[in-house]
Fold this protein.
Amino acid sequence: MSNYLRITLVIVGLLLSIANLILISKKKMPIKYSLFWFFAALTIFLVGAFPNFIGIFTKLIGFETTASLVIGIIVGILLLITLLLTVIIAEQKRKITLLIQEVSLLKSTNKK
Amino acid sequence: MKKRVILVIPAYNEEKNILSTYQTIVEFNKKNNTNYDVIVINDGSSDKTEEVLVNNNIPHIKLISNLGIGGAVQTGYKFAYKNEYDIAIQFDGDGQHDVNFISKMIEPILKEEADMVIGSRFINNNKNGFKSSTARRIGIKMISFFIKLKTRNKIYDTTSGCRAINKRLIKRFSVNYPLEYPEPISTTEILLSGYRIKEIPVEMKERVAGKSSIHAWKNVYYMVNVLLNIIFAKKGGKHE
């Protein structure tokens, strides 16, 4: 893995953490969900800082180069986050449905 | 004591049909000395359905946003539960269902032979009336086959929107009712929970006006979803 890629990864990891911190301080990101993103940022940072560590796994998992393994790891993180988001959306939908039903029932009984 | 019966009529953009559907029920009540109450659930219609409902003093609940058939019908069950009805009947607002079959449908519930009665287009050599297209009938048969596999019960008209339920099911459905593909999924779930379903033959008409809500029927997507839902169906939902 080239040094440029390593530097880029370290910077991306740091930027992601900073963005996360700013969002938390502005109360736009709940701590609960920020943990996924800190985990993602840390992984990206560590891969850039210590590429030898994941270098061992490159051939083992079936990647040609460590650089493509890095992309693989990032895709994996994104898949995980998307999966969690789908679950969260489904839960939200259930709650919104309940709200719409109860509010509509209340509104219609108040009219009578 | 006389049982209290309510017809739950989900309506999405039914400005052309809803008044005549309601009037048919009112006239039926007068003629037969019955006392079927009606609650129309206006599922966030974008046409003049609400105007028709208000101007004609039709009892209704206006959903503040569109929920789809499952969420709309469940609102009706919540209303039925809160107002302590004994029997709730899902009844289409588009003129497809015939009010004359209602007394037949509630009979097995009154006799406590069944918890749910499905008005079926496909039993007892019922040759009259609207039977839906060939593609839909094949779909309904496939769903029927999967429900049989999962629950060992044969339900012929798996997607019929003409269903009567007793007080126990009103309570259950008011807290736990599938929002997507509600008819086949709820049928499967309650069979797994040990409720008894009876199918009786009814005749249905073709829609009077407007479009059916199931656009996706020809789509494989609908079938795949319903069949997977049946395969993964469980006894109770989150609320039980």
Observations:
- Chain A touches chain B at residues 93-94, 97, 100-105, 107-108 (CB under 8 Å).
